Amino acid sequence: MRTTNYMVYINVVPPIILDADAKKSVPGFNIYPNPATNQLFIRASSGAPATQFTITSAPGQTMISRSLTFEGQSVVGVNISSLSPGIYFLQLSNERTRTTATFIKQ
Questions:
Q1: CATH number of 25-105
Q2: Smallest Cα–Cα separation from 16: which of 60, 47, 70?
Q3: What is the mean pLDDT of residues 21-41?
Q4: How wide is the angle at C-alpha 80 spanned by C-alphas 77 and 86, nearest 5°?
Q5: What's the pLDDT score for residue 26?
């Protein structure tokens, strides 16, 4: 009798949302333009606390991570010129909330 063993690998990838209106804004924040080329802007509602943001690629690799402070301003620009064209996830988090938005880098 002969037996054969098979190994199955499953790669789990976060869902990609292609709807143009999906996740353009997140509670308390708005990101624009979407799609973006070299600069992504994050607009915060008034009184937004200091926020950590992380940009990850579709496969889940962290590309950019840093903190944002909206001191006296409601819009902060993020340089994304080093990113390759594709779909990315922007995660915004502070001591109270964590939320994720999708954007496209052209």
A1: 2.60.40.3080
A2: 60
A3: 76
A4: 130
A5: 52
Distance of alpha carbon 106 from alpha carbon 85, whole angstroms: 5
Cα(55)–Cα(49) distance, integer angstroms:
19
Respond yes or no on whether the N-terminal peptide bond of residue 49 is cis (omega within 30° of 0): no
Query: In the structure, what pLDDT confidence band is assigned to residue 46 with cuts at 50, 70 and 90?
Result: low
Give dist(CA 43, CA 78) in Å, integer. 11
In this predicted structure, the answer to whether residue 53 has a pLDDT above a threshold of 80 is: yes
Domain parsing of the chain, residue ranges: 25-105
Strands (E) across 1-106 are located at 25-26, 29-32, 39-44, 51-57, 62-68, 75-79, 86-93, 98-105
- DSSP β-bridge partners for residue 64: 55
Separation CA 40–CA 54 (nearest Å): 13
Evaluate whether 92 touches 23 at the Cβ level (below 8 Å).
Answer: no
